[in-house]
């Protein structure tokens, strides 16, 4: 078995609120609590940290110590550009003052990336978009989406920025909505330090085949990160990876593998009602099934089947590798 | 113009949190604040009140006074059987202690209904369902869904209970998921004081034609309430009524009208980023367009078109009535 | 391994047309050709036959001989109540003459059921429904849906009728659209010889959990038949069973198993571009994985997990059974 | 009222088959029959013609005469690269021989474009894509998609090629699936004579906001054509324009209008069970409502509302313009 590293968004180990359970699905946790829980997962190496650190007045040092104790590194920092002040958008907010605020806010998070030696600033502008027909001027909105990210990338050439696209939620339409739309924006930005963080579930939710999305991002030289979970294709359910779509998940990792993409395999799950550690362990155990499946996959047979677009032969090979023959 | 009464869920005038904007889409409001805002809507007669009253230690008297001042009556009480303590279900919770708690909780809300002279207890068991394949024994879960409502209805024969079904959210699958499923459950309960509160948007989201859902519930003698909003058919967006699907909304009201269903036309909207009062006014203004449309609809022509399933003729008649000829 | 019998709709072995490839996805085949192909599948016992027999002037005897030669029995007869003459509906056609024609047509197919000793008449009224808002009077349409089936069941008490529901296609809304709607109709009919044929993919497409749908139909004493396939949840793709949703398929069969439901496991697949025999073999091989999984499933552990609604534990048990531990 | 020209795909006036009504939804019609019907629509100027001409051995001259008699011009030619021979793909077919055939076939259609003086060759590679996980090598498939169109555009610099994207159908995943994906491909091709034909319903079906899709294509200088229809967002229903989503249709045309996009307003409808001429008239009458709405739209008010992302104000302005104030 290879030395594949596994990671997770630290929010995996938080508790959540939604518009109904406004008192939360559990007692609030600080990011330090969450890091401690993450440390209990059997095989986790790195985490992606929301910033500012949730749960009170918590310093970088506090976090560093907690990470050390838990044996975890930092892969990315996710500035929270989707809270109340940005509820009408961060980069695309109608108010230029709030757009500046978003810029300054992410700029400050860049220093956190540097301090923790993380791989990237993760941008998930979930409030950037629109809800209603006629609500926005679409050309302007997209222009702001591009400029907002572009300015940050230009000003911080030492850092890498990844955009995590999603079709929608919390906005009814999100601006960076699909792999192709995001690549189109990145091409327009034209800088080397902007790429995609591809969320398997967001691709499924958007009607994409995640394996195809990965290949497209790779072919554009822009697949800078990824994470996995599962859903029912109609919403970003952030369920445990492997529980609904094991075969497409396998195809996704096969695509990474054959392109020699060697990054961290991350989880982006929201176990609202589940034990966080158990949910992470189940997912990672499934990812280890995937690893084993890749090791025994009949690569030559698969290539022949794919050359003929022979779905039956290709599926048989994939099933035999993943489920045993 | 008829004396149609309009209503709204009081949450229309609250602010909201979700899993991203955990600090909320605005300053928290008490139910008294919300009632005051509701009173500013141009043409609103009644509200449906969440219970317990949100925003602190607020008495029935406080609420009564606020309602009087705002000129509003109470149509229903919605016990919050979807907060943290019920996050794994209310009537279907795996823990019998929590199921009892849900029962006692709703029982207490019955007294609130009596005190305010409301029309019904509204049951929206949004946490009753399941998320994952293999998670539950489906037969037991459905049995609990039926028993939970049935016991309440049997114990409170002086009151009316309405079930508001929805396909999903916050659960990935909700137990009372569709109009037909709910009617099937109600038939099994077999009591006269249980009916449906039909949410136009939930029907759309579930792939139903809301007009058909309304007719089915009426034909079973179980349409006890309704509310409207709009969405993109893939989620319960709770957008402003009339902004996306005006024609199906018109058909829905036509169905109520031709069956002489004479209840309140209610709003169930979540204006996350909009002014609550303006959002309610826009919706009610559209509902008045609907009223005018019903007044000029070529009923004979429509019946002939429908007798022939003639979509073109029927649509032309409907468009002319709603949009002008 | 048990003596589970496998079946298939004979159309699995036909070729298809659609609105684009109007010249078909392959050379036309007669039902005799299709039977011969079905006979080449490794482990197939019975077929469901479209009636009239497609491909020309083919007698019952011709079909009997072909079946004998292929070693196949007949589980059901599917009268084609969805061709041109019924394109505006069979039981719900606006023209009473066509409704009578549908009745006579199905009545004639009853004799074919008797002649072949099949288990049931399968009713799939795919053209019964509506496309546009305002097109139909929904109460009348549903009444016709119920009366059409009810009359047939009353007149043929020696036979069993199964209704195969589907949300839509070719109609934008199909009248028998969901498991609950169909059960509601069957209860209204009130005869013992009408039940459901549950198509796994139709349930998925309708946003149902197929295991839950099966349990509901069983609890109403109405699960008279089933078939499987797969899809992406947004359409009735009729793909090869097991290729997209293996875990939910496993849960579906677990539900049948624990209820001692002992019917034929049938395929309803449309291999537009695949070799029919290979597609059937791949599906049945997956179903044999399911059988093996059921044999090793930790039933006690699962029951405990389900009693607690413990998704993680339940999934781990299910994955270990299906994929190996 | 302006001199807006209206058009339609000639298939609007054909009859259809699908996988159920294999005998068709009506008597077969030749393209000459269809042209005659198109000529009966009240206000139609141009048509898009499938090629080869359907219905038998029909010459260019036959078609010319029919068009003259009907008073119709030709806007585009649609080579049928989605029939049996291309059922596993045209530009992306696994067989290089079939890919060459597709190339030659479209090349021949170029001469038809020249002969009729049409505006463009319309490419709708509906069979180019995949159905199953693991079926294809995604990088190769996309490469073939780009090369196929690029070669044609390079070889025929005097002509314009438009790609009509769609998420799926008949393929489970179509290669040119979204506006952004198609623009990404077109940028890669890098030739001036390739653009997008934007189908309103395909955009809706793909989860796009059609107005946003139009703006994006315009901003890339690639909106070369458009057509409209309607659907329920979950499938390419090709229903009559304006019957389900009038407001988003209005926003779509507003976007064209404010960008001074001055092409033909075309219909791409499939009236399976409706009178073709009546269906076209109803749609065009709705488009004339749109024209009137654009004429009275409070443009300044809308711009202010959009500058603030004020959904309520913007919607009120739009509704007043379209439905009357």
UniProtKB/TrEMBL annotation, chains A, B, C, D:
Keywords associated with the record: Carbohydrate metabolism, Cytoplasm, Isomerase, Manganese, Metal-binding, Xylose metabolism
Keyword Hydrolase recorded: no
InterPro entries from the UniProt entry: L-rhamnose_isomerase (IPR050337), Xyl_isomerase-like_sf (IPR036237), Xyl_isomerase-like_TIM-brl (IPR013022), Xylose_isomerase (IPR001998)
GO molecular function terms attached to this record: xylose isomerase activity
TM segment ranges: none
SUPFAM superfamilies listed in its UniProt record: Xylose isomerase-like
Similarity field: Belongs to the xylose isomerase family.
Assembly notes: Homotetramer.
Descriptive protein name: Xylose isomerase
Taxonomic source organism: Kineosporia succinea
């Amino acid at each position: 078995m290879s030395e594949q590293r596994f990671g997770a968004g630290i929010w995996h180990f938080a508790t959540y609120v939604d518009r109904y359970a406004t008192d939360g699905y559990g007692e609030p946790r600080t990011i330090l609590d969450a890091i401690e829980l993450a440390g209990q997962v059997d095989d986790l190496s790195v985490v992606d940290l929301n910033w500012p650190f949730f749960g009170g007045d918590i310093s970088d040092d506090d976090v560093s110590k907690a990470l050390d104790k838990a044996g975890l590194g930092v892969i990315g920092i996710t500035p929270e550009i989707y809270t109340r002040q940005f509820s009408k958008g961060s980069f695309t907010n109608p108010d230029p003052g709030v757009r500046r605020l978003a810029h300054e806010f992410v700029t400050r998070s860049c220093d956190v990336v540097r301090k923790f030696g993380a791989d990237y600033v993760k941008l998930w502008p979930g409030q950037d978009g629109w809800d209603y027909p006629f609500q926005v001027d679409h050309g302007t909105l997209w222009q702001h989406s591009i400029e907002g990210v572009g300015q940050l990338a230009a000003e911080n050439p030492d850092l890498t920025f990844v955009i995590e696209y999603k079709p929608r939620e919390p906005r009814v339409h999100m601006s960076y909505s699909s792999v192709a739309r995001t690549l189109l924006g990145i091409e327009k930005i034209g800088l080397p330090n902007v790429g995609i963080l591809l969320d398997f579930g967001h691709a499924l939710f958007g009607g994409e085949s995640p394996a195809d999305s990965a290949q497209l991002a790779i072919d554009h030289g822009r697949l800078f990160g990824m994470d996995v979970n599962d859903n029912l294709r109609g919403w970003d359910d952030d369920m445990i990876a492997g529980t609904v779509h094991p075969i497409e998940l396998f195809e996704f990792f096969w695509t990474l593998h054959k392109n020699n993409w060697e990054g961290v395999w991350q989880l982006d799950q929201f176990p609202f009602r589940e034990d966080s550690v158990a949910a992470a362990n189940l997912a990672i155990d499934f990812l280890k099934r995937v690893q084993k499946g890749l090791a025994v996959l009949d690569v030559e047979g698969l290539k022949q089947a794919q050359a003929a677009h022979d779905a039956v032969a290709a599926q048989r090979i994939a099933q035999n590798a993943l489920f045993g023959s």
